[in-house]
Structure formats: structure tokens, C-alpha cells
Design a protein that fits this description.
Two copies of one chain form a homodimer. Chain A is α/β, with parallel strands linked by helices. The first copy, chain A, has eleven helices and 17 strands.
């Protein structure tokens, strides 16, 4: 049976002051009125059903996650005792799926992206699932680049292997690290490189085989957790073993050296909304180039991103800045330096202002 | 007897979002932890006693004023039914003083300035009061300019008339409108022009005589209010007459054409803190030129003014801006355009966001 696994373990320091320790990015709405994790659920559930949709998150946010997606069975929220990066996260989910469905095929995707043209999106996921059901291997989705982005990793595709409906499945030639701008420009032109969207499809068995082959220690830990599922000991084993799991990303740890990898190139609107400036990708700017959310009042200002989660914000005579305000935290940053929000969060920790973390 | 009259009728739209309709500027602390109106009270009360200190404010803020200065008799807060500018305000106070003290000499001063060297300040006030007790006339205090300020009116002094302790009393030659920058530069050099601080001294009788001479209609209205004082009809008469009083400033309406005017030049630190950028005059900047109040965290930023009334504010990579945040309102402005806060308040009115007015 087909399942969807939503990875919702992010900490989201890049979205302070809107995101907090106990309200990471996936609980923000950003571009709509619905939290991202719920948007993601609504995007995939029509394909596999709510009962086959799973969300992996940390214990801290499990309850909030269940509240955001009340129509999903509570047990489908898999709570990691602590974050151990995405390889462990995906492995944990596959063990859980196999426990209920030995033939499980799963689509794995992040909780905190914004994606348009949802019918086409689901159509591509269905094609991916069908391909791995038939052919095995680990399948990735590559977004055709719309700009020479230097902040993403790329997938370089090889020959076409199959055609499923509107979609072509290619061999994946290689993963490419974040390129410099000149290289990124050639990627846009040549059409062989696609953004790695962090969306995957595979048979749970195939994924765990790759884990056993490449990361045997991780596989061993996951197997212990898997063997305890459903027993009275499950939680104790999880709490004991999970913190010892190898901490490595899905891309580095598994995908880059997997035996068989596919890519389906896709073109629907996609953004990982990685930081405040990325809101420009998912919200429409007004005639002055301002992107505004909430009660915002701009005078003689242009090309700003201004987001209110409560307060009335007024901006006068400024351009190319980001303003984000909640009742207890305000960020005002030059757009080019938005990535330093992480430093802000660290400094807030140092200063002991815990209630705004 | 000597009295002090604190004029606290300002509306303070220039300090949004900290100032609001029912919390005008004089209730802000700005440079210390004490509201300006209370700072002003504490500055003058040692000279005349709390029982001879009076505050004129509007009915909307009378209660807040009494709470800010609980040691002053409640009846010393004179509540205008509505603001009618400073000539009416000073006249109302003089009528009230004469009702309890026919020989009243009064020092009149704004509630919302910041003044240093308080002993010297009080010494100058005492000298001014002594001079008008002896010689009559209306006396002004002129601040020696420390910079070529084009935002203030100036007092041009004439010959010295008397010397009282450390202080020289000059004839006031004329009031000078806000100068251009070249003229302001000559004022700093020549030493004959002083900032009009809006601080005055006179015998209440002398002031009301000038009102009768120059603004007979205003005098007539004030006399009606004065005649009703202490009677059962006092409040009704005040409510009926006050809104009809001529609306004109003390400077234009009375001072500029008064028969006898004096000026005592003074040099203590003084600021009318007329807008957010003026905080630089009364707060110390850090080594990056940042003036900060409250929980503020600046990275790679300089020459900003950042004021928090609650939220943690983080500023990244910006200079020459003003940020002010309360839990429900945030201002982010280019320093040169801070005067447009008034437009913001008007726009907020238009949009109907009444709870942040």
C-alpha cells in the first residue's frame, strides 16, 4: 500500500521571532492561513488517505502536530525522543510502516515547503510511487530551476528510463553540491540539473536495505526499535536507542551512494521557504515591491518584506529590509543578512531571554 | 506665594507606537524609568512644594496624571474639558491660582521636556520668580544653543537689566521664528539668540492683564471660569465655556506682543525630546552610535535608535534607522523621516485600527 511520510522535525531558528523552540517553522503559516505542516498534510492526504499519512516529529511538538492534523490517527504521529537528522528519521518511519504493512511504498517529504499546482504535484508523486513499486530503487523529485539559485543542491539527471503518464523517470546521474553563480547559470540553460526538493519515493524494504548496506550501525539501531513496535517495551526501547542513532542526513548518508536512484523532473511552483527573504517566492509583492502580511502600513518604502503576527507595523522611508513582529519579538534586518537570524537566536540564549526562544 | 504650573495637555502622536490617545508623551519615560510628567514634578516641587505645584491636563488623562503624582493634592490637577492650546491653558491655571492666592507668582513649564543639572535649573527658576515678583512683566528662559538647530524658535536678548545670584536677566528683544541653517549657525556664534524653552515666570495678575489687553475674548471666557471657582456651578461653567475659548498658542497669542518681557539665559542640558530622533540628545549612544532602550540586540548595526517597550528587538545590518516596539505596535523608520509618524497615526485612524491609536 502507498503511504506518505511527512518529516516535521525542524527547529526553525531561521524564522525567529515567528518560530520558537516549541513552535518551529512547520507550525507557521507564512504564505497562507494554514500551518505549513497542515498544508503538507492536505497536499498529500488525497493521494494516500489520512490513515496512510504519517508525520515524524519530535516529542516536544507531537501534541501540537496532532492538533494541527486532527483527522489523522493519533498513532500516525511518530515522536522522536530527539532529532537525529533525516536518515534516522526516514529509517524510523520505514520501520513503523513495515510494522503495519510489509509491502509499504512510501513518499517521503518535508513538512515545511510551499508547493503550487497540487494536482500535478500529486500526479508526479503517484508516478514516482508506481515506478518504485515496479522497479525498486530510491526515487527523487527534481524541480526545474527557474533562476540560478546558489543556495540549493542539484540533481543531475541521466538517461530517461521510463515514462509514466505525463512524467519521465530518469536515472539520477549524481548529486551536485550548491554551485557558484556561473555554474548555476549553466544549469538553468542546459536543462540537465534540477533542484533537490527533498521529496522521495521508495519501498520501505528497499530503503532499509540501503541503510543496512551503507550505515549498518544505524540499521542495527533502527531494527531494535522496529522489533519492539507494538510491544509493551516499545517506548522504553525507543527512548533508549534513538538518542544513540547515527546523526547524518538522508542525502549524504544514503542517497548519494545508493545503488539505484531515479529522478522525476517536475515544474510546479516550489519553494523550501528557507528564510524570511524567500517569502518573496510565495507571496505577491505590491506595486512598490513590498511583500506584506498582517496589519502593515508602509510609507515611501519599497522592496521590503514585512510580516506581522499581531502588532500593527509601520515602515517609513526604508527599502530592502525585513521586518517581522510578534507581540514579544521583533526582527528588523537588512535583506542580505537575514541568515544571521540564527546568530540572534544564539545571542538570545546567551542573554537568558528564554521566554522568547 | 510661588507656584509651579506644569502644562501637560499634549497629544503626542509623534511618539507612536509608545504614545497613544490616552497615554500621551508626558506619560512616557523615554530617557529614564519615570514618566516625563513625574520627572517634571520632581524637578520643580522642591522649589515650591507639592501643594503649590499644579498640572493642567485634559479630562481624558486627569486620572492618569493624579496616579503619576500621588503626593500632589488631587485638586491641583486642573482638567481641561478639551485642549484649547497653551494661551487658554496658562490663563486657566492663572485663574485657578488667583482663586487661592491673589499674590500668586507662577513658573509655567511643559510636562514633557528633559532637563539636566536640576539644582541649577531650580536656581534659575527661583531667580526668574524673584525678578517678576519685584519688577512684573513676563519672563522667559532661553537655552544657550549647543548646535545650529533649525527646529526651534529663538529668543533674541537685549540689554542686561538685572543680576540675581548667578543669573542675568535681559530684556527680551524679540521672538525669532525657526531659522534656516545659515542663520542658525550665526546664532550659535554670536551668543545673542537662545532656544525658546517654553518655560516662563510671571505674576498671575500680570499674565491675565496681558490676556485682557491682547485677547479680550479669551480673557472674558477665563474670567467667567474664574468667577465660578469653588462654587457649585464650577464644573458646569468650565464645561460650557472652555470649549469656546480662543485657540491660540501662548507664544503667538501673548508673549510676542507682551509689553514687558525678560529672558534669563541658561546653559543646563535641555531637550524638548520632540520626536524619536531626539532621544539621541538625552540618552548615551554605545560605541557603534546606537541608542538603545529595553531588550535590544544589534548585530552589525550603527547609529540607530532602538526602543523596546516589551518585545525583544533584534536589528541586523542596518544603520540610521529608528525602531520602536510595543506588544501591539511597531515603528521602523528612516531617521530623517521620523516626523512622518504623524501620517502613520492618521492612516491608522483611516483604516479603523482604533485599538492601536
Amino acid at each position: 500500500m502507498r503511504h506518505a511520510v511527512i518529516m516535521a522535525g525542524g527547529s526553525g531558528t531561521r524564522f525567529w521571532p515567528a518560530s520558537r523552540k516549541n513552535r518551529p517553522k512547520q507550525f507557521l503559516s507564512l504564505a497562507s492561513d494554514v500551518p505549513l505542516v497542515r498544508q503538507t498534510f492536505e497536499r498529500v492526504a488525497p493521494l494516500v488517505g489520512a490513515e496512510n499519512t504519517w508525520i515524524v516529529t519530535t516529542k516536544d511538538t507531537a501534541e501540537l502536530t496532532r492538533k494541527a492534523v486532527p483527522e489523522m490517527p493519533a498513532g500516525n504521529v511518530l515522536a522522536e525522543p530527539m532529532g537525529r537528522d533525516t536518515a534516522a528519521c526516514a529509517g524510523y518511519a520505514c520501520e513503523a510502516l513495515l510494522n503495519v504493512d510489509p509491502e509499504a511504498v512510501c513518499i517521503v517529504l518535508p513538512a515545511d515547503h510551499v508547493i503550487g499546482e497540487e494536482d500535478r504535484f500529486r500526479s508526479s508523486l503517484a508516478a514516482g510511487a508506481r515506478h518504485v513499486e515496479a522497479s525498486g530503487g530510491l526515487l527523487t523529485f527534481g524541480i526545474r530551476p527557474t533562476r540560478p539559485e546558489t543556495g540549493y543542491g542539484y540533481l543531475e539527471i541521466g538517461e530517461e528510463s521510463a515514462s509514466i503518464g505525463d512524467w519521465q523517470v530518469h536515472h539520477l546521474k549524481r548529486f551536485v553540491e550548491k554551485p557558484d553563480i556561473d555554474t548555476a547559470l549553466t544549469y538553468v540553460d542546459r536543462g540537465q540539473h534540477f533542484w533537490n526538493a527533498g521529496i522521495f519515493a521508495w519501498r520501505a524494504q528497499d530503503f532499509l536495505s540501503e541503510v543496512r548496506r551503507q550505515l549498518p550501525l544505524l540499521a542495527h539501531g533502527l531494527a531494535k526499535i522496529g522489533a519492539a513496535f507494538g510491544g509493551s517495551d516499545a517506548e522504553r526501547v525507543l527512548d533508549e536507542v534513538y538518542p544513540t542513532l547515527q546523526r547524518i542526513s538522508l542525502d549524504f548518508g544514503i542517497m548519494e551512494s545508493a545503488e539505484t536512484c531515479w529522478t522525476i523532473p517536475v515544474e510546479y511552483p516550489w519553494s523550501d521557504v528557507g528564510s524570511w527573504p524567500a517569502l518573496r517566492e510565495v507571496l505577491t509583492a505590491d506595486e512598490n515591491g513590498n511583500v506584506e502580511r498582517g496589519r502593515v502600513l508602509s510609507l515611501d518604502s519599497s522592496n521590503n518584506i514585512v510580516v506581522s503576527e499581531g502588532p500593527v507595523i509601520s515602515v517609513i522611508g526604508l527599502k530592502d529590509i525585513i521586518v517581522v513582529a510578534t507581540p514579544d519579538g521583533v526582527l528588523v534586518a537588512d535583506k542580505e543578512q537575514a541568515q544571521r537570524v540564527k546568530d540572534v537566536v544564539n545571542t538570545i540564549k546567551e542573554r537568558g531571554w528564554h521566554e522568547v526562544l
